[in-house]
Amino acid sequence: MSIDEALLEARLAGEIEDTIRFYQFSPSAVSIGYFQSIHSQVHNSACIKNRINIVRRMTGGGAVYHDNQGEITYSIVMKISPKMREIVHSYEQICSGIVEGLGIMGISARFNPINDVLVGDRKISGSAQTRRNGILLQHGTLMYGTDIKMLANVLNVSKEKLSDKYVQSVSKRVTTVKIEKGLISFEELLSALKEGFTKIFGSMHNIPFPPTVLERAHELEHCKYDTESFLFLR
Predict the structure, then answer these.
(1) What is the DSSP letter of 206?
(2) Under CATH, which number does the domain 2-231 receive?
(3) How many C-beta atoms lie closer than 10 Å to residue 234's C-beta?
(4) How far apart, in whole angstroms, are the C-alpha atoms of residue 77 and residue 207?
(5) Helices vs. strands in the chain: H and E counts, helices first
(6) Distances (CA, A) of 172 to 98, 156, 176, 202
(7) Radius of gyration over alpha carbons of the chain, in Å?
(8) What is the pLDDT of residues 35-91, one digit of tens each?
(9) 228 burial level (CB within 10 Å; 0-12, 13-18, 19+)
(10) Residue 63 class from Cβ within 10 Å (0-12 exposed, 13-18 middle, 19+ buried)?
(11) Whole-model pTM?
């Protein structure tokens, strides 16, 4: 999360161009939206038992389970063009990269306002966004093999929601690449996503992280994201 914010700051300062990155959480983690409370959104004992980290995002939105073995996260920092001034339009354009990538893998998906990608009626990807001085940061997740039972266990605290019945309910509302298409390697998935975003935003080239971005990310990690004061902000 600190890298995402450092990239946003660097884009604001004109130190980098519009940038997209793909990454995974290691170990698995739950990220909560900036305005959420851990106590109402996360089953903390389940996270401790399963060695799952918890982090607060700088963006809003709901709690997300990031499965190290079955999920890929993307983040994009870019200048807000005139046609992206409306938030829902910006979500639609950026999420179109995911829709295109899934299509390349043979999965028919669609954007669902305000910030989801669905396969049929089931969610496969969600995103969150923040804006500063004409630049946006949007990051989101794509579930390609997420453990749905674990997702249901860590994102809720009530006994009712932790029941097998609730797990079945979650399974009816979310899906994964693996469910839709069978086993696809991480490399195949990443290649399809890169191609999908290229169709939307044009050709891209790989760049190393600028040292200043990594330095700033470490600062943000220690003074913000790794502190209890930020984690338990609400």
Answers:
(1) -
(2) 3.30.930.10
(3) 14
(4) 14
(5) 10, 9
(6) 21, 17, 11, 35
(7) 17
(8) 999 988 999 899 999 999 999 999 999 999 999 999 999 999 999 999 999 999 999
(9) exposed
(10) buried
(11) 0.91
User: Whole-angstrom Cα distance, residue 219 to residue 91?
Assistant: 29
The three-point CA angle 51-52-55 to 5° equals 140
In angstroms, the CA 234 to CA 147 distance is 28
Please provide the size of the chain in residues: 234
Boundaries of every domain in the chain: 2-231
Task: Dump pLDDT digits (tens) for 105-133.
Answer: 999 999 999 999 999 999 999 999 999 99
Beta sheet of 19-23, edge-to-edge order: 19-23, 71-79, 135-143, 122-132, 116-119, 110-112
Alpha helices in the chain (DSSP H): 2-12, 38-41, 44-49, 87-104, 148-154, 164-173, 177-181, 186-201, 211-220, 228-231
Q: What H or E segment, with its residue span, contains residue 116?
A: strand 116-119
Q: Which two tokens stand for residue 208?
A: 């190393």
| Under 8 Å between Cβ of 80 and 44 | no
